[in-house]
Design a protein that fits this description.
Helix content is about 50%, strand content about 10%. By secondary structure, it is mainly alpha-helical. The chain has one domain (about 10-60). Strands 1-2 form a two-stranded antiparallel ribbon.
């Protein structure tokens, strides 16, 4: 099974999200702010998928494996 690669359009869309520090075909680097927000909400019981979706991420684009 091959790795899931992001397209140039996907990368450009991700880089417009204030919670993305950097994106490439294979990697998404999230900001410290998003990491803290994610941890706080996850500990409070919110599912990872919902946290990503509520903060401007397209789950279908980035792939569910990256979310979970």
């Amino acid at each position: 099974m091959g790795r899931f690669l992001l397209t140039r359009e996907d990368i450009e869309k991700l880089e417009k999200n204030k919670y993305v520090a950097k994106a490439s075909e294979t990697t998404i680097t999230y900001t410290f702010e998003f990491k803290r927000l994610f941890i706080d909400e996850y500990i409070a019981g919110k599912p990872a998928r919902k946290i990503f979706a509520e903060n401007g991420f397209d789950i279908a684009m980035i792939g569910i494996k990256r979310v979970e």
